[in-house]
Every structure is written in C-alpha cells, then in structure tokens.
Specification:
The complex is a heterodimer of chains A (279) and B (254). Chain A is mainly alpha-helical and 279 residues long. In chain A, 73% of the residues lie in helices and 0% in strands. Chain A contains eleven helices and no strands. In chain A, helix 7 packs across helix 9 and helix 10 runs antiparallel to helix 11. The longest helix of chain A has 39 residues. Chain A starts with a helix and ends in an 8-residue tail after the last helix. By secondary structure, chain B is mainly α. Chain B has eleven helices and no strands. Chain B is elongated. The termini of chain B are close together. Classes of the chains: A mainly alpha (279), B mainly alpha (254). At the A-B interface, helix 2, helix 5, helix 6, helix 9 and helix 10 of A face helix 1, helix 4, helix 5, helix 6 and helix 9 of B.
C-alpha cells in the first residue's frame, strides 16, 4: 500500500521500484490477432474419434474414411467435376455482378440525400427478405436455369456491398469532392480516381460479408431446385440415403468456403497494402 | 422516431406504377401478379387461417432457434474469449466450422433427424450460433489491458470483472452477431421447411410454386419480408431498452 500512498501526495517522490512479481510482461497484441493452428486439435480429435468409434457401414454417421470413398465414387462417375465447376462459376459470376452493381447503386443512392431517404424502407424490405423466399419466384420467372441461380444469388449478396458503400458515401467528407472539383477533374476521373479508391475498404468489407452469403445461396438454390451443382449432389445423396457421399460433399463445400475466405482476405490485404495499420 | 414520408411514398408509387402498367396492359406476365391480386390473396389466406398458422410456425421456430443459438454462442464465446488457453486450442476449429456454409448441413440434417420440427430447430440453431459465438469471442478480447489492470488493482473477483468490464465491452459486438443471427434464423427456417419439415411458410411457398399460384407466392414473400423487417426492428427496440446506445448507428427512421 506504500506505493499508492506516495501517489496521492501532491509532489510525488521518485517511485519506488515495484516488487519483481508485480511486473508483467505483455506480449505484443498482434500475436493474439490470428488464432494459432494448434486450435485445429479439437477438430482433428473429433475426426479421429469418429473414425475409430464408428463401426462398419453406419447409416447416419459413416466414418471419415468412407467420406473419401464417397468423393471418389462421385468423381469417377464424372458428376463431381462439372458440379464443382457449375457452383464455382455461379459463385464468381454472382459476386462480380454484386460488387459492380452494388458499388454503383451504393454510390448513386448515397450521393443523394432525398434518394437515400426515399429508397430506405424499400432497401430495408429487400435486405430482410430471405433469399429462400425469392427462389420460387425466380424459378417461375426464369425457369430452372443457371441464370436463375445467378439472379437469386445476386439478389442476396448485393445488399452488404450496396449498404456498406451507401453509408460510406453518405458519411464521406465533402472536402474530398471539393478538392477534386477545385482541380477541375472530370466526372469520370472523380469517380475513378477519387471516389473509387476511397471506397475500396468499404467495398472489400461488403464483399467479405457477401461472399459467404453468396456461397450459401448458390448451394441453397441448388438444393431446393436441383439445378446442377454441388448442392444438388448433396441433396441427391440425402434422397438416396448415401450419408457417406453427403459428408464427402460437405467437406468439399467446406474447403471451398475456407478457400474463398482466405482468397478475399489476401485480395483485401493486397488492395490495401498502402495502409500502414493493415486494417 | 420521425416518420419517413418519402420512403412510404416511394413504396406506394412503386406499387401504383406496377398496378397501372399491368391493368393498362403495357406489361403482362403469367408469373407476375398485379399488386391488387397479391393484396386480396393476403386477405384470403389470412381469412382461411393458412397465413396465420404457417407464419406462426415459421416465426416460432425462428425465435426459439435464435434464442438457443444466442445462449449457446454467448456461453461458448465467453469461455473461449476469457481463457487464453481455450482460445489457443479451439479458435481455429471454431473458425473452420464457421466457414462451412451452414446450408450444406440441411440435407445431412434431414438424413439424420428426419422430416421433423427437431430437424428444423437443429438447423436453425446450428447456423445461427456462429455469428454470435465469433462476435462474442472478439468482443471479450476487446477488453483493454488497462481495464484488466484496474480490475486486478481493485481486487475484483472474476464475476465482478465480467459484469463491470467484459459484458459492457462485448455488448455491441454480441448485438451485431445477434442481429445477423436473427436474419439467418428466419432464412434457415424457410429453407428447412422447403426441403425438410413440411410445414410453415417455406412449405407454403413451394406448394404455391408447384400449383402455379404466383399471387399466393408473392403474398407469402411480401409478408415474410415484412416479418423480417419487423423482427429486426423489434430486436433493435429491445436492445435499445436493455443496452441504450449500443446500436446507435443502426437507428433509422422507419
């Protein structure tokens, strides 16, 4: 208690050295930002226990080694490769459309206060409309096609990007545009050289939220409508009570999800490499 | 809360243009019904009791699944966030599970649990857990070292520290997680009803699609969209009551 008493006096005497056990060295925070790989241990343990405990041909919980056989079967039947391609193609196409369209609409809506207010409730309604509810409408309107799939996915994935860009544009410092105007930049150059760079962080943030949603909705459409893709393979496996294949497809989907996440994180890091804080 | 007049007017204008274009014959389509038909379909479905019972089932499953997910996510999140060792030895696994698209589990869940409410609840809960869990972990870890030092200096116990520092720090993060989960819960309940448990709005949508009743389909879509907005609004209201100011940036005139 002697150290706290000395701090209360108006002219503090030089602080007494703290007792050694009170000094705690803190690690730099950065090392705590990324979870270490040993955190995968529970997952590995789960799979190993599963493999060891599951006996024979369990109908519901086939052991992981059987998943692999399920994947191989699908591969040899020649259905897996086109399914993966179809899913990835829809995913990439829909994300590209969502990014471009979402950013443009976000800029347009965010720029104008009256438009922003007038469109607010409509956007709110669309944002909370579950993608699953849109599927039947899209099927009736477009049919069971690849285009329908992309349409539904864009409808679900565009909102995070659009809303993020809109709110950033709305809160943008007017100084930014004043500078551009006083330099007599053309509208196109303002969009390309001033607006867009200032929006890259928001677009990337929106895209990173949108990407998992897009993957989910691609699978959703495939599961619900049986349009070709990984989702319909999972759904078929379920209908034929082929649990091993269903788990195998699930594993492939998981790998795609994680790869997508890592890819976007890398893209974001590269696009924003000029920022010192790396955030 | 000020009333957003221009927003309401825009919606009315949109419906008006749609109605006029269709009744004037400028734009006709077999799949797109007139707003008038959608409106009368909503009334019919409500009067026959279908709308109410389907909606009740879907909202019920959504809320129960969401509440379960919130509790589980919060509990695990607190545990993993508070203990550095637990975080080191589990976070990578949790991140892995979060990255798995939850929707892909629906067929597996149907296989395991059959066409039942149980399946629906499990799917909704499983998928909705992750946003809450990950945000809770992140939120707990935002407690600054200074606060921890203060707690230690004041001789606070573990519980007091959680109550005074951890919960207020994590509340905004958890709130965002819960908000995302609520929308997810509703979506997953619909999906589960479409492919698995044959009840509720999801099933009604599929039936309307298969029997070529676009006006019924649109009626359900409009109502479920409104329910989504309403749930979100209710959540924000509730949150504002319990933790004032947490989501101030989200507040918008209706």
């Amino acid at each position: 208690m002697s150290s706290s008493a000395s701090q209360q006096s108006p002219t503090p005497s030089p602080p007494a050295p703290l007792p050694l056990r009170a000094i705690r060295f803190r690690r730099p925070r950065r090392s705590l930002a990324i979870p270490p790989l040993r955190g995968l241990l529970p997952l590995i343990l789960l799979l190993v226990v599963w493999q060891l405990l599951s006996h024979g041909q369990s109908a519901y919980y086939p052991r992981p080694s059987l998943w692999w056989e399920g994947i191989e079967r699908e591969w040899q039947s020649g259905e897996l490769k086109p399914a993966i391609e179809a899913t990835l193609q829809s995913l990439v196409l829909a994300l590209a459309i969502s990014t471009v369209l979402g950013s443009l609409l976000g800029i347009l809506i965010g720029r104008s206060r009256p438009a922003d207010r007038a469109l607010g409730p409509f956007l709110e309604f669309c944002r909370f409309l579950p993608a699953a509810a849109v599927v039947p409408i899209a099927v009736l309107a477009v049919g069971y096609t690849e285009r329908m799939k992309v349409f539904v996915v864009v409808f679900a994935a565009i909102w995070p990007i659009l809303l993020q860009v809109r709110s950033t544009v709305r809160n943008q410092s007017p100084l930014l545009l004043d500078v551009a105007r006083s330099l007599h930049l053309s509208r196109l150059r303002i969009l390309w050289q001033v607006m867009l760079p200032s929006l890259v962080p928001s677009i990337m943030l929106g895209l990173r939220v949108a990407a998992p949603i897009a993957l989910v909705v691609v699978l959703l459409v495939e599961i619900v409508t049986q349009v070709p893709g990984l989702g319909s393979l999972i759904s078929t496996a379920q209908r034929t009570f082929d649990a091993a294949t269903a788990y195998g497809m699930l594993a492939i989907v998981g790998v795609i999800g994680i790869a997508l996440n890592a890819l976007l994180a890398a893209l974001e890091g590269w696009l924003l490499r000029y920022r010192p804080d790396g955030s | 809360m000020p009333f957003n007049v221009s927003g309401i007017l825009f919606l009315i204008a949109l419906l008006g243009v749609w109605q006029l274009a269709m009744s004037a014959g400028i734009f006709t389509s077999t799949f797109l019904p007139e707003p008038r038909e959608i409106g009368s379909s909503i009334v019919d479905l409500t009067e026959s009791g279908e709308m109410t019972s389907n909606l009740w089932h879907t909202v019920y499953v959504t809320l129960i699944g969401w509440a379960l997910a919130g509790l589980i996510g919060l509990a695990i999140g607190l545990l993993v966030g508070l203990s550095l060792e637990a975080w080191r030895y589990s976070m990578a696994s949790l991140e892995f599970f979060r990255a798995l698209p939850g929707i892909a589990f629906v067929p597996v869940a149907v296989l395991l649990f059959g066409f039942s409410v149980k399946m629906e609840l499990i799917v909704v809960t499983y998928v909705s857990v992750w946003p809450v869990l990950v945000n809770a972990v992140h939120g707990v870890r935002q407690v600054t070292p200074l606060h921890n030092d203060v707690a230690r200096m004041m001789g606070m116990g573990r519980l007091a520290r959680i109550r005074r520092f951890v919960i207020p720090t994590m509340a905004p993060f958890v709130a965002v997680g819960l908000q995302i989960s609520l929308a997810l819960s509703l979506a997953l309940a619909l999906v589960a009803e479409m492919v698995g448990n044959p009840t509720g709005v999801g099933q009604a949508l599929i039936v309307a699609q298969n029997t070529l009743h676009p006006e019924e389909m649109f009626a359900y879509v409009v109502v479920i969209g409104l329910v989504g907005v309403l749930l979100n609004w209710g959540f924000l209201k509730l949150l504002d009551h319990g933790f004032p100011g947490t989501m101030a940036s989200e507040r918008q005139p209706l």
